[in-house]
Design goal:
The protein has five helices and five strands; from the N terminus they run E-H-E-H-E-H-E-H-E-H. By secondary structure, it is α/β, with parallel strands linked by helices.
């Protein structure tokens, strides 16, 4: 079974590592990398071509909304899921092309579900 390739772009180090661990613990997903800032996130999206990017709204170098716009414009095959403390951002993120938006105060299963929903169908994957 092909695994959904996920890139994590998260501001906080412990959340970043928790997300990497949680994604890698799933049988159908793998975390292909973690980004600490906006520039690194865009570079890693170009290099690694993840199927799904989970991005923090508050992020050094470029906020999550700016990253969403850049990724959706330059790498439309990469689906974006916003991960935020501010659920009001979700509507804006969706208008910018985000496949999903998950508040940080919900259980991790909700985020994992959003990542699965954003992923392309298995027959579409090139990996």
């Amino acid at each position: 079974m092909a695994k959904t390739r996920v890139l994590v772009a998260e501001n906080h180090p412990s959340i970043r590592e928790n997300l990497r661990y949680l994604i890698n613990a799933e049988r159908d997903m793998e975390c292909v990398g973690v980004a600490k800032n906006g520039r690194q996130c865009i570079e890693m999206c170009r290099e690694l071509l993840p199927e799904v990017l989970v991005v923090d709204e508050i992020f050094p170098g470029a906020d999550g909304l700016a990253i969403t716009a850049i990724v959706r414009n330059r790498l439309p095959e990469v689906q974006v899921v916003m991960y935020t403390l501010n659920p009001e951002v979700c509507e804006v993120a969706r208008r910018m092309g985000a496949a999903g938006c998950v508040p940080k105060d919900v259980p991790y299963e909700v985020l994992l579900g959003a990542l699965r929903q954003a992923a392309p169908a298995p027959s579409v994957r090139a990996h």
